[in-house]
Amino acid sequence: MPVSYSYTPSHTDFIVKFGSGNFSSFITTRRFLAQGDVLTVLTTVTRSHKAYSTVQCGKGPQDNIELNSDFLYVNHSCEPNIAFDLSSADPTEWHVRALKNIDAGSPLTFFYPSTEWQMEQAFECQCGTKSCLGRIQGAKFLTGEAIVERGWVSPWIMELMNEGEG
Asked: pTM of the predicted model, to two decimals?
């Protein structure tokens, strides 16, 4: 049964497109987004463990949020166009924002290591960008320069890098 069978959209400004293989779904925008635009405020449930559908929201391994919306389908890119900004101490201010101008119809992508220290499911990147890093495992396995040049990094990732946790 395809994933789309039971799918219910959560946002009218975005379209989730389902591919035929595993991990082949993605989300696009219906309208132009300018750099800095807030795409949505995240309404999420905190989880105490990592899973494919979570994003790290703090330094501890238990600090993860469940993406329970269309934004679950945002794929990785080594040259991302959005950021999951979970840097506020107030979770009601967590949001997704554009890192650059994004044309209508464009897939939304984020740099997984910008929020993930050590990923549960490492993978070979297929983003096809000039700056593709190949194997994506989390920030722990990258240099600070490789992370910072992607446009946005979560504060806890920078703290862990500065503490020499890698």
From this structure: 0.87
Q: If you search the block for the tokens 């995240």, which residue do you land on?
A: 42
Q: What is the 3-state secondary structure (H, E, C) of 63-123?
A: CEEECCCHHHHCEECCCCCEEEECCCCCHHHCEEEECCCECCCCECEECHHHCCCCCCCCE
Q: List, for residues 80-110, the tens digit of each pLDDT value.
A: 999 999 888 888 899 999 999 999 999 999 9
Q: Which residue type occupies 82? A: I
Q: Please classify residue 47 by burial: count the beta carbons closer than 10 Å to its beta carbon, then call 0-12 exposed, 13-18 middle and 19+ buried.
A: middle
Name 161's Cβ contacts closer than 8 Å, sequence gap at least 6.
139, 144, 147
CATH homologous superfamily of domain 3-162?
Answer: SET domain (2.170.270.10)
